[in-house]
């Protein structure tokens, strides 16, 4: 609408920006056919979405057993919903691999670096889709209310670092002040 031109509208530029970079690089490489551009883009999205199956299997194996993990893998791979949606350039689906990767690192083992990296990945998921922040707050709250301060601080620091770069810095460069789209 005319009154919103030049004003932040509340949508993150992270996912859109990554798609812009993809199209810019493809144009630089001389690829201009829209069908080929979208075929490659959808193949990349499809390959990235395979991480959903992989991390779901790993998470299920860790919290249940191998038999259930195999079932989860087959269900995710064979049911039409995730394969269909994963190639549709939907930010709501594109953030799922980051979420599952983060959860996998949180439950994988006690390595402190995992909690920081999990926070970085969750921060990227939040940067794709702000509403994922509700899930991240829930995860952080678990560590907070268990008085596990190192895990809470590492996970939260990772989120804040990624979010500050992808939202604070990018919005500052675009709008002249940080977190413009978020607020």
Plain-language structure description:
It contains nine helices and no strands. The radius of gyration is 18 Å and the shape is flat. α7 runs parallel beside α9. The chain has helices at about 15-30, 35-65, 65-80, 80-85, 90-95, 95-110, 110-130, 135-145, 150-175. By secondary structure, the chain is mostly helical. The model has no long low-confidence stretch (mean pLDDT about 90).
Helix content: over 70%
Indicate the proportion of strand residues: under 5%
Which ranges are low-confidence, i.e. pLDDT below 50, for 5 or more consecutive residues? none
Quick one: overall form? flat
Number of helices in the DSSP assignment: 9
Tell me about the largest β-sheet. none
Q: SSE order in H/E notation?
A: HHHHHHHHH
SSE-based structural type: mainly alpha
Give the N-to-C terminal Cα separation.
Answer: 19 Å
Produce the secondary structure layout.
Elements: H1 14-28, H2 34-63, H3 66-78, H4 81-86, H5 91-94, H6 96-108, H7 112-128, H8 133-145, H9 149-175
Helix pairs in contact: 2-3, 2-6, 6-7, 7-9, 8-9
Short description:
By secondary structure, this protein is mainly alpha-helical. The protein has helices spanning 14-28, 34-63, 66-78, 81-86, 91-94, 96-108, 112-128, 133-145, 149-175. Helix 7 (112-128) packs parallel to helix 9 and helix 8 (133-145) runs antiparallel to helix 9 (149-175).
List keywords for this structure.
75% helix, mainly alpha, 183 residues, 9 helices, 0% strand
């Amino acid at each position: 609408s005319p009154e919103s031109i030049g004003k932040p509208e509340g949508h993150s530029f992270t996912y859109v920006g990554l798609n812009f970079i993809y199209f810019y690089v493809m144009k630089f490489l001389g690829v201009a056919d829209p069908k080929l551009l979208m075929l490659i883009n959808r193949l990349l999205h499809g390959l990235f979405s395979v991480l959903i199956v992989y991390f779901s299997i790993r998470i299920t194996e860790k919290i249940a057993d191998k038999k259930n993990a195999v079932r989860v893998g087959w269900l995710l791979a064979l049911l039409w919903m995730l394969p269909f949606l994963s190639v549709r350039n939907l930010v709501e689906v594109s953030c799922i691999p980051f979420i599952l990767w983060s959860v996998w690192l949180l439950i994988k083992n006690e390595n402190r670096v995992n909690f920081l990296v999990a926070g970085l990945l969750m921060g990227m998921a939040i940067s794709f889709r702000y509403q994922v922040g509700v899930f991240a707050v829930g995860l952080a709250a678990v560590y907070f209310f268990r008085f596990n301060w190192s895990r809470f601080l590492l996970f939260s620091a990772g989120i804040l670092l990624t979010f500050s770069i992808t939202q604070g810095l990018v919005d500052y460069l675009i709008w002249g002040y940080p977190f413009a789209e978020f607020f």
